[in-house]
Amino acid sequence: MSTRLEALPYRHVLTLPSEPSAVRLSRQTAERALIEWGISLRHPAVDPALLILGELVTNSVRHAAVLSPQVTVIYAAGADCLAFAVHDRHPYQPPLYSAVTGTGSGGLATVMELTLGLGGTAVVRADADGRGKSIWITLPL
């Protein structure tokens, strides 16, 4: 999967209040965007991608809302790649790959198991001021 995120032709950004309804709304928005972009909801990567997205938004709502009243989801896609990021303004950067080494549990372990199982990548990117982060997931289509 050699597609650079900057080269992905389809993009959508959604900002929501950091509350439980954000999980449902972020998934519904993803489904609408995928359909609009011509990606079948029956593609084998879509259900796992929606689960990953839901887990990441849930984590932001549960753990970051005290410092981050909003959560932003960035959706992107191209012919061979689906990418999305969940951004909040909490400075904690979770160790994504601890799930791979057996020290992780819960939603983040599920995120990493699904991402790596699909041949995807995951990365945490800190905000320039160090007071927030985005977790980027990239999956091959």
UniProtKB/TrEMBL annotation:
Residues 51-141 form the Histidine kinase/HSP90-like ATPase domain. Pfam families: HATPase_c (PF02518). It comes from the Bacteria. Coiled coil: none annotated. The keyword Transcription does not apply. Keywords: ATP-binding, Kinase, Nucleotide-binding, Serine/threonine-protein kinase, Transferase. GO terms for molecular function: ATP binding; protein serine/threonine kinase activity. This is ATP-binding protein. It comes from Streptomyces sp. R35. The lineage of its organism: Bacteria, Bacillati, Actinomycetota, Actinomycetes, Kitasatosporales.
